[in-house]
Amino acid sequence: MMLRNLQRHKGAFAINLMSLSTGITCVLLIYLWINDELHFDKFHANDATLYQVIEKSTENGQVRMHESTQGPLAAAMEKDLPEVTTAATVLPLANFNITATIKTAEKSIKNYGLFATSNFFHIFSFKLLAGQPQQVLANENGMVVSAEIARSLFGSVENAMGKSVQWEMFGQPNSAVITGVLDKLPANNSMPFDFVINYASLLKGVGQNFKEWYNEGPHTYVQLRPGTDLKKFNAKIKDYLKRYSRGTLFSLQVRPYSSAYLYGHYENGVQSGGRIEYVHLFSLVAIFILIIACINFMNLSTARASRRLKEVGIKKAVGATRTTLVAQFMGEALFLTVLSLLIAIGLAAIFLPIFNQITGKQITVQLTASLVAWILATTLFTSLLAGSYPAFYLSGFHAVEVLKGKLMHRSWGELLARKGLVVFQFIVSLVLIIAVMVIYRQLAFVQSKNLGYDKAHLIQFDREGALMQSTPAFLTALKKIPGVINASCIEESVVAGVGGGSSTYDVSWPGKPNQANIDFVTRSLDIGLLETMGVQMKEGRTFSDQFGSDSAKVIINETAIKIMGLRNPLGTPIRMWGKTSTIVGVVKDFHITSLHEAIQPMIFRYNPKTTAVVMVRLATGQESQALPAIAALYKQYNPGYVFSYHFLDENYQAQYISEQRISLLSRYFAGLAILISCLGLFGLATFNAEVRTKEIGVRKALGASVSNVILLLIKDFLKLALIAMLVAFPLAWWAMHSWLNKFVYHIAIGPNLFILAAFTIVVITLLTVSYQSAKAALINPSRSLNEQ
């Protein structure tokens, strides 16, 4: 009976099957993505007791949170606080866009890595292919490398063990012994690295300042005793730093390590979301897509109720109860849902590799208890949602009235319910259309915004090895290469890592308020760096050898002037790190962090010796000729080192990789949601044309034109779209305004977005329903009037 009924209504069955299978496919992929997000960093055995120490400070009237902490903090907390069983210090180079070179006599390789104390592999559960977790960093010269590095330098994991290598960062060479080899890092790990070096090696070299309490940079992680009251512990450590640094402006607190990935955003010192917002967003998208698919089933089922009324009446007349009929109709919905689910699983398996490529993930499908539970719950939810209303609606008719033909008309309640469901579909579609446009425009704004310098055709690479002693000659030769416009050096990458890179609070000037706590970004520059970047001067001059030594001169940005309250900044003395310098120039503001963050006050010093990054401006269209020549010159001046360069605009775009992926996902899921809605509209338009065949014939016989008939059939759908706009526009504005507020610099949501969205939904509606409307309008009146 069930198969016979489905076969009898092939069109509706096909539309419902396509809608539900497409919807469930989307929901399944979103579930896999959300499940992966929720399990980020959860693989550590100590996850329940593993915490990160973060700092809070009040600066220029705003509360800021910092992941960077003092170097001695971990050891002190482990010694002083009984709640802390183990504490580790970690300096993640990736957070600061810093790479290190690892080399042997024959080969070298550049990677991101970590400096960590000896208990790193005790606190974190990263697997090793060789070496014991408790021993690999016991030696001060110990280094753990990835299997890729081991194979690249020594041919195999086994051959790498015990071998000596050189590692270099900021131009300072060091030696180490490979004591362990890493297994491949889990895909859901938020701490990327290819090697780990004992933290003691850093303290002996470029990181000597990390021994002091006044300096920050490393991250501190603690393992707390089970049962520790987190609220009481945070209260206890709030002023802990004052034990060792009386004048500190920082207070401490801890947060679960695995929560940082999803809940890493703070506003004025209060946790205010993070990637968890995208989890919530796509959870809603999944629910709405599934509801839209179910609405199609409900609408088409109730719209075609007149075709099944006699079936219901006869069954009731021969003794069928309402419960029996409800079970029959719910069974049909369950059958369709299970069939759609099977198709969806196949589609998800086919599209999963593409989905992984879009999201940057490595999701695999494993038949776990949670996945089975989700499949069962989705099947039950979908079948109940899709089938309950039609089942109770169809089974509610009285047998006598149905057989007498008294219920062959549609009730107002049915019409209102069906129209309300269509309006809901329109609302969801409109919100998704507006969201996609806002995200797209914000990312276009990010890419096109004037950053205060020209990031195009600008490359950077590390200054290291022999190049440290021959930089002036190298730069001179570099500028002579055809296609090279200019070149110079800077302390760190212009596109800074988390927090903006090197900075200091130790800046004073005449008239500075006593209680002012201001974090100044600092950079050492060589002559010509600002010109190479294309930074514009507001007043004064850049560094130059025409004025003698500029070692006691500094350049600041516009934001620094505002915060310092300087009316005539040129010639103003400032004191930093115990040394007095004079302001000789002011640059216009430019961005070194993403547009999520405000421009910070900046101080530039002339100090070529402490620069570590070479920046080169290339002529447009000559990159392919210039780059090989630069590589050859680099190898000539720095033999044995890898010439590894990056285009600055690529580094800039990498800051928005999450938003770019979310934008792409939003476009795909919005498109699929609209497609599912269109399938439902097409089905309703088809049925609407069928049931009004005689009415159309009468109207045409009385002189109505084809266009009049088409307008008659589509105007109801356009009215529903208009009603949906009244609800969707305020809702979309609120949602996207909240999202845009995550960016300090963002677009405005203007009326043109809503006009375009309205135009889009009207066009989609017209394209969807016009075909069936036109087809019905073109039928010969005599034919339609003669149909029984």
TrEMBL record:
It is found in: Cell membrane. Residues 284-395, 669-781 form the ABC3 transporter permease C-terminal domain. GO terms for molecular function: transmembrane transporter activity. Residues 14-239 form the MacB-like periplasmic core domain. It comes from the Bacteria. It holds the Pfam family MacB_PCD. The chain crosses the membrane at residues 12-34, 278-300, 333-354, 374-400, 421-440, 668-689, 717-737, 743-769. Keywords: Cell membrane, Membrane, Transmembrane, Transmembrane helix. GO terms for cellular component: plasma membrane. It is a multi-pass membrane protein. This is Duplicated orphan permease. The lineage of its organism: Bacteria, Pseudomonadati, Bacteroidota, Chitinophagia, Chitinophagales.
